[in-house]
Amino acid sequence: MSLRFALLGFLSTTPASGYTLGRKFADGAGAMWEALPSQIYPELGKLEKLGWIHGTTDASDKLNRRVYEVTPEGMMALLKWVGGEEAEHPPERDAERVRFLFLERSSLKTIRVHVMRHRAHYVDRLEKWQEERDTVAAGTHERIIDRLRACKPGERDFIMHMKWFAFEGLVQRAEMEIGWANDILAWLDELGEVKTNSPVPKAWTSIVSKPRSVTAVSAAVAQSSTSQSAKRVRKSTLRKKSTRRSRHR
Fold first, then answer.
1. For every one of its 249 residues, what pLDDT tens digit does the chain have, with 9 covering 90 and above?
2. Where in the chain is the domain with CATH 1.10.10.10?
3. Residues 6+ apart with CB under 8 A from 67
4. CA-CA distance, 212 to 223, in Å (whole number)?
């Protein structure tokens, strides 16, 4: 996805200035696509050159703000994009999860701080996303009000439910992340002050396809280490024999 389609989506609901778009992106749209004014204004210029939006300046506006609206060509481009057959999931680049992946070498205190920080982030997001979702359900969300003004008779509930699902997905994502963090903190509480004799996480034992036990995994690691040691011994022995043959020659 590019910023241009997010802007087209907003402008397809109601005309707006760059200032208004920046404010809207700081609210609802920022939950799904963050953008700064320094990114928004240049993109608006590109869209206008493409003929996808048209801007006019209101003479009564002392700030001479340019108000943009979507052109028929811009609406066609938006509909083509939203109806595209290819999904646009971004590559997995979860820096916090990668950091956690290598945290086992850190102190238990460091691990706990990391997880608590992760939880706090999503607790904050959850509150914001729940508020967005609930205002959609109540019909008081600013963009919903704008969208419903232009909707066809009989489509009001369908539109509201579609918007609600968008924010409900974010709410469920935040709840999942908070639950994941809580599971880790509960496991750390049970672990105590040392890393030895780690208790089996509850989710570990609830997997339908039962994983190998910790003991089995440890045994496999030990077997692998032994096998690697044996290989090194064999290689060393072969090198010595080869050296001896060379000397006899």
1. 578 898 998 898 888 899 888 887 766 555 666 778 888 999 999 999 999 999 998 777 777 889 999 999 999 999 898 888 776 777 777 888 999 999 999 999 999 999 999 999 999 999 989 998 998 888 888 777 777 777 787 888 898 898 899 899 999 999 999 999 999 999 999 998 888 889 888 878 776 455 555 566 566 666 665 666 555 656 666 665 566 555 555
2. 3-82
3. 15, 16, 17, 55, 56, 57, 58
4. 15
Give CA separation, 235 vs 101, 241, 245, in Å. 34, 10, 16
Cβ-proximal residues to 22 (8 Å cutoff; 6+ apart), any chain: 35, 36, 37, 40
Distance CA 53, CA 75 (A): 9
Fold of 3-82: Arc Repressor Mutant, subunit A (1.10.10)
Q: What residue spans of the chain are helical by DSSP H?
A: 3-13, 18-26, 37-50, 72-82, 95-101, 108-138, 142-149, 156-191, 202-205, 214-248
Give the residue from 57, 53, 49 showing the smallest Cα distance to 5: 53
Instruction: In whole angstroms, give the CA distance from residue 188 to residue 204.
Output: 15
